[in-house]
Amino acid sequence: PPKAPKAPPAPPSAARVPAVPVAPVPPAEPADVEALSGPDDADVAVDVDVDVDPGIDGGRSTSRNSSITTYGRLDLGTSPPQAFVLVDGDSTFANGGIDDVTLARKQLGKGPALWFRQGSERYIVRDPMLIQSLQRAYAGASDLGQQQSALGRQQSALGRQQSALGKQMGEMGRLQGEEARRIALVAVEAARSAMSAHDINREAAAEAAKAARGATSDAAVAREAAREAATEARRAMQEARSQAAQSSRTRDMNRLASQQAELANRQAALGSQQAALGERQAQVHARAAQQAQLVIARALASGKAERL
């Protein structure tokens, strides 16, 4: 707090009582963290529930519900003119729309097989040599996708922690404002009492001066008493400000802010890791998509593509 000014040589005629400070506004609570939506056409790894038809056996078809993980480039809006889906167990590698993935899984079961579409024409390739070349092209895509999913779960957990801390900070700010206002009211009351004593001393000094008519020692005593009263008022205000600054809620607020900063740094680190994984995924999918086009061309030329 600023240093108090020197006392005047004579008691002031009036003193102004400090105004009650307005309580600080608590910080707004952050919005709950939600999953961010990506573009309509993006490299993704998603879980899709489909009805799987493992095939027809003796004229009898069977169907069951299965949850599978799809890696690749999915169009979340209108399906593109051409698409392909490699079904390999519980994993699917695709370049197309969600409808293409759902239909391919339903028709192929768990594969391994390649389903592709050119316009409205659909085909299946089951040749082991052709399928294995695609499996090699997509090697590592599953691992990258699982790493991305793990990072996403970590970011989601951090987001929930940040949201909880934000709510605590909002409540702490509200309570801190109430405490600051209460301390200020106490300080104002102390200042009023001190100023009242100041007025009494000033009047007493005037009476003493009038009665003594030249007895300056009594007037000096009265002036000293007035200065002490003013000093006491300033001390009360300084103590109130010091208590507010060093209150436990202020320390708690600083601690929560430090935790928020730490979580933000961890979020940034996870984001950098996800960006690096995203680049690697894009490279894998680009190479695999080129290989898929070669496989499709060979299957059509050799008659190994079965039209549905």
List keywords for this structure.
308 residues, alpha+beta, 2 domains, 58% helix
Topology (SSEs and partners):
Elements: E1 41-52, E2 56-57, E3 60-61, E4 64-75, E5 82-88, E6 91-97, H1 98-108, E7 113-118, E8 121-125, H2 128-137, H3 141-212, H4 216-245, H5 248-302, E9 305-307
Parallel strand pairs: 4-6
Antiparallel strand pairs: 1-4, 2-3, 5-6, 5-7, 7-8, 8-9
Helix pairs in contact: 2-5, 3-4, 3-5
Uncertain spans? 10-44, 46-66
Which band does the percent of strand residues land in? 15-25%
What's the total count of β strands? Answer: 9
Mean pLDDT: 71
Which series of helices and strands comes N to C?
A: EEEEEEHEEHHHHE
Strands side by side in the biggest sheet: 1-4-6-5-7-8-9
Give me the Rg, rounded: 39 Å
Label the overall shape: rod-shaped
The largest pleated sheet is described as:
7 strands, mixed
Please describe what this structure looks like.
- The protein is an alpha+beta fold and 308 residues long.
- The protein folds into 2 domains: 1-30 and 140-284; 41-139 and 285-307, no CATH class.
- It has helices at 98-108, 128-137, 141-212, 216-245, 248-302; strands at 41-52, 56-57, 60-61, 64-75, 82-88, 91-97, 113-118, 121-125, 305-307.
- The strands form 2 sheets. Strands 1-4-6-5-7-8-9 form a 7-stranded mixed sheet. A two-stranded antiparallel sheet has the order 2-3.
- It is rod-shaped, with a radius of gyration of 39 Å.
- The model is unreliable at 10-44 and 46-66 (pLDDT under 50).
